[in-house]
Amino acid sequence: MAINIKNREDGFTKLLHGMECFVNTLKVTFGPLGRHVALQKSGERPQLTRMGAEVSADFELPDSFQNMGVSLMREMALATHKKAGDGSVMSTLIAVELIKDLSRLALNHSIVDLGKGLRSASDSARASLIASAKPARTSRQMSDLMTTSVGGAVWVVEPVLKVLKKLGAFGVVTFSDSDSIENELTFQKGFTFDKSLISPYFDDPCKEFAELDDARILICADTIHNMEDVLRITEKVVEQDRPLLIIADKIGEEALSLLILNKNNGTLNCLAVKAPGFGAGRIDLLEDIAAFTGGKVFGDSLGISLASVMIDDLGRARKIRVERSRTIIMEGKGAKSRIAKRVKELKARMARETLDYEKQTLDDRTAKMTAGVANIGVGGYTERDRALRRVEITQAYAALRAGVGGGVIHGGGIGLLMTASELAGEKRRGAAHSARRALARALSAPFCALVDNSGASGPYMQEKIIDGGFKLGYNVATRKLEKLSSWSVIDPVTTVLAAIESAVSLAVTVMSSEVFIADEPYIMAPDENP
């Protein structure tokens, strides 16, 4: 296919136009008073949504270079959301304002010097935000944090706080759709580790996670190479008509192909996930899983070959859920006496340990062995209603975890305005000074967007708050200026940091681009068959 090449002036103009189209569309959904966007996808019924992810998913412009800008913005927003659980729209607002400002400054300054100055300004903003963050410990702070993250949807607070009260900080929470209009809470024993599928071919891209019911679990500390060993084990599991989870460091190409083939053929419902940990620590963690599930750890490094595996050596669990970044084993069938013995061993090692890091690691492992798993079944009147509410509560829980772990700052764009004011007040020379001022102006964009969506003037409110010495903040939900001393709108600092870092990274990369290349669109001749 032919390609189209544009120089910096032409290519950058189209790229920026695509970015602005994308961000201006997302911006109207931002905040508690954001508007809906009407979507009409090919072959589907039209729908109204305020979910930025739905708006951005199929956003495409006819011009290849404009669409390049859309794709860059979309990927940055997804990366921010994946890293922090939120902040995707915030990052796009900061990024587009930053790129527009830098394009003007590039007329008088070196791109390289602007990039260095921008990264320095980003480091200063990061230090300022971390210094201003406060821990979220009380139920009131947690409630405010969750409510802010979902634009005032207070219904998310009660079920999440019930789970935290029951399970504590180390409990695992999953979300599903309820069959009724009411929310449903269920609690069970569970064990989780931060590893996922070895191969994407085990995954169904249309689902958020993969599940196995009443599964058998093969636990291996090494790489599984021998296809015959895998075939022998799978035959035994198939005879019992049960699904199989394999936990291993790696699986050889032939053995992996056999498992995927069996899964696709419907012969065996199986999943394979990467074993947690490294080296000797991996074996230790696998022993925890073995105790919880009633299984046995195999591996040449232990002197126990897979050739000796019997069906009774496999672990068992009532349900297994494999998500994008973690695996959850629910209702493991390990004997209570064996689990208690393992917990006792971990506590004894913790008492003997002198290093704080190792003590904390052992404490975390003990908590995982004893904490449970909660599932919040999200109710609603329709399937669409349940889907939207599930997104809200998932986002609220992610914000809560981020806020409890990293602290919170003033939300509603006020924390960003404070940081912007500090950056603008610092004196630098040349490109470094210009870059700091550019970042300061870009950090005010989320606040202005929130206020504009409430019907007020963003720049006017920004000036009024700064002139007042940040004693007041504008609450867009109530459309009133409120004292910051009693401010209940808070954001996780990790979310804000992720948004700034993503925006700065994209801005520096785009500004250093000199040539833009895209496929030439194919134009069908009038007499050509499609």
From TrEMBL:
Chaperone keyword on record: yes
GO biological process: protein refolding
TM spans (from-to): none
Listed GO MF terms: ATP binding; ATP-dependent protein folding chaperone
The keyword Repressor is annotated on this UniProt entry: no
Keywords from the named record: Chaperone, Stress response
Similarity-based family: Belongs to the chaperonin (HSP60) family.
Protein name listed in UniProt: Heat shock protein 60 family chaperone GroEL
